[in-house]
Each structure stands twice: as structure tokens, then as C-alpha cells.
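Dear colleagues,

As part of the handover before I leave the project, I'm documenting each prediction I ran so the next person doesn't have to rerun anything. This entry is a single chain, and its sequence is reproduced below.
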Amino acid sequence: MKSGQFQHLEQPAGSPAKGEPVFLVIGKLRRPHGVQGEINMEILTDFPERLKKGIVVFVGQDHRPETINGLRQHGSGLLVAFHGYHTPEEVGVLRNEMVYVRADDRPPLAEGEYYHHELIGLRVVDESGNLLGTLTQILDTRANDVYVVRPQAGPEILLPAIESVILDIDLEQGVIRVHLLPGLIAD
């Protein structure tokens, strides 16, 4: 059970109102670099290779479209030049802004793989159909993801995202069906 990662920082990741696009965070703009209007971007996506000159990304909470005019690797991040920004002072207004792409423009995943934003907000039920709660968060533990389920009452339930626990994900119905291994929930 794999999830493609686009990080979302303290923002709801579920579906927006009908007809509204979902935006996914791919980076955070840090500080201007040099004198040509470039800015450092921290990478927050598993797919930085999709960023290329000429593509449009969306900057800030109001999702302002900006066209990438150039980019290059710089340390663990990227130096990005946006169309229309020529000096450090001009591009400096973008400092600490998040950079987004539209969810409908994301790369396809293999069968059985899901983006985190597709799963957050889904109902989680056991094998008998009993509601356990709602998936509120996905933790990356490197070994496997852990799904954080918030029940109506009681403590959160932590479910390892492994085949023996996550039996079925039905995005259309908005349900994740799970098998509860002994000790996963308090008696």
C-alpha cells in the first residue's frame, strides 16, 4: 500500500467544494539568490523532475499563477526564476510563500497507489462494516505509512498501511476497509 507524497502543511487535504481545483504543495520559497531574480525553493514533492521551464505553478494562499522561467539544482533545493521577476527585490516578495500545482496535473500512480490528499477525510471501517472513524493524517515512518484515524469518541487509532491491515480503498464510496490486528485498538 503506497502513497505518492505531496506534502500539505497544516492544511486540509480532502476534496474542495464541487468544481474547485485541489492544489498540492510542492515547495516553499525561501530567500532570493544572486542578482538575477532567482529564489531558493525547498522541495516538498517526490516529483521535482516534473518542474521545468515554461510550466505554470501557483504561489501563495491565493494561488497566483507564475511561470517558471528557469531552474537549477542548488544544494538540497532548487533555484527558481519566475517570468517577470528580474531582481532580488522583486522576487523577494515571494519569500516564505508555498508553491502549488493543481492536483489534476499530478503524475499518474500505479494501480493500488494513492496520493495522500485522496485518502484524507475517508471513512475507515472494519471488515464487518463498523465505522472506526475518519482518516485525518498520514505519517511517513519510512518503513511504511501509518494512517491516523479519529473516532467519534476515544483515542486516535494508528493503522500501519500494510496489505494485511488495509484491505480495500474505495475512493468512489469514500471508504477504507481495514483488518484490525490484535492490539491496534484499545479494548
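The longest strand covers residues 23-33. The domain at 2-105 is CATH 2.40.30.60 (Elongation Factor Tu (Ef-tu); domain 3).

All the best with the project,
I.
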